[in-house]
Specification:
Layout (H helix, E strand, L loop, with lengths): L15 E2 L7 E4 L3 E4 H6 L1 H12 L5 E5 L2 E4 L4 E2 L7 E5 L5 E5 L1
Parallel strand pairs: 1-8, 3-7
Antiparallel strand pairs: 2-3, 2-4, 4-5, 5-6, 7-8
Length: 99
């Protein structure tokens, strides 16, 4: 294989690549991610966010394509995210994202 070639991982089981995590996502609790609209209207998700931050857990937000920030507003790399996330869209439907 040449140095400039890229190998794309085949995603099995309906998972999506972590890079495709939607904009306006909040990553909470180490393995869950919520659309901002879902988070604003779902009490259980809000409690998870509150408990996670009260325990000193870091949250991350994806405000735009290719950008992830921590709770201090600093840009961080995708390597800071867990290997797998369960994402809840605005309607509560879930999608699994993996690195």
């Amino acid at each position: 294989m040449a140095k400039n070639e890229t190998i794309k991982e085949i995603i099995i089981g309906g998972a999506q690549p972590m890079e495709e995590l939607p904009i306006n996502t909040t990553i909470v609790g180490g393995d869950e991610a919520f659309d901002m609209k879902y988070l604003s209207k779902n009490r259980d998700a809000q409690i998870k966010l509150i408990n996670w931050t009260a325990a000193g857990g870091e949250i991350y937000i994806k405000p735009s394509k290719g950008v992830i920030i921590n709770s201090s507003g600093k840009i961080v790399g995708i390597d800071r995210l867990p290997n797998e996330l369960i994402y809840y869209d605005a309607n509560g439907e879930t999608t699994r994202y993996i690195k």
